[in-house]
Write the structure tokens for this entry.
Amino acid sequence: MNITRFSLAAVFASSVLLTGANGQTTATTEPVGFVTVGITAGTGSAKKNTLFSVPLMETEAIDGQVAGIITGVTANTISNSNAGWTAGALSQPATPFLIQITSGAAEGRLFLISSSANTGGAIAGTANTGTTVTVSSTDAAQVNLTNLGIVAGTDTYKIFACDTLSSFFGTPASSGVQGGTSAATADTIVAVSNGVPSTYFFNTTSVKWVKQILGSPDASNVALLPYFGIQYSRLPNTPLSFVVTGQVPTEQREVAVKNSGTTIISQFWPTDTTLGTSGLSSVVTSGASATLADTVILTANGVASTYFFNGTNWKKLQLGTPNADTTVLSIGTSIQIVRKGSASGYSTLTQPVPYTL
């Protein structure tokens, strides 16, 4: 997915190719288009944070069935005996793919397909075969697929392409991202996976995206997952805007939220929504104050605001704790969920499609 700098726009067109059970490619009308999301400017000497996400799904031609019927499920694999995929083609580190469940009890679940190698920071696992994909260990740590109620022979899936840090953000010359010899002098991106944050930046010495740990290992192929949110910390005093192209999500969303600690999830939808309609109250512990309740953090213009659910309404943590049900979750933002306590495991946030197509 290429990025370009434009003004805010959202245009939905049609035509995407799907493949039926017989392997024949047929045309259907899936809404596609583009939206523009912005990154708040820093001050030039201090960074400002934007909670950022990718609000569209990326389609791409593959060999075999891009959509079809699931014929088998294990704890971490999904199979279609008629898929006709090229072995390893969906597991290349630089060009990752996602698989989404599109019917049944698990409709809306989205999983990263396992990479065949750890090149460029990808998480190595088992490569796809002609009929089976393995879910990345990142997602397999959250859920056992056999517990989701997927019915073999009935439920369906669809495959999407997935960007990486390098394919989406490009280089400083191509995108305006601030690179540097260290994270202190560069724009930084923080992604939280299973409660563990990782920081990345474009290293102008090695001329690639790297992870901020000892040795600054290559992170060019780290997947930019549409269901996770990221924190973008901008240093220069100029804003950025990224045009995101792809398919409008047409399925409900189901996403795992860690039962303790911090999870950053994408807003996901290519339309503004609100706290009151987000369904987030179903995955947080309510309380009479932010001290007792789990909290949700949103950013706007580089300023973070904290919210909590009191059992009836969302409240903003400020003098007077005003009602915040109508607080807007803008296109391309992310949501930081901070859950108290030490409970293990994950809860499932289910969100219906917030628009009519």
User: Anything to note?
Assistant: Residues 249-351 form one domain. The chain has three helices and 26 strands. The chain has a mean pLDDT of 90. The longest strand covers residues 32-39.
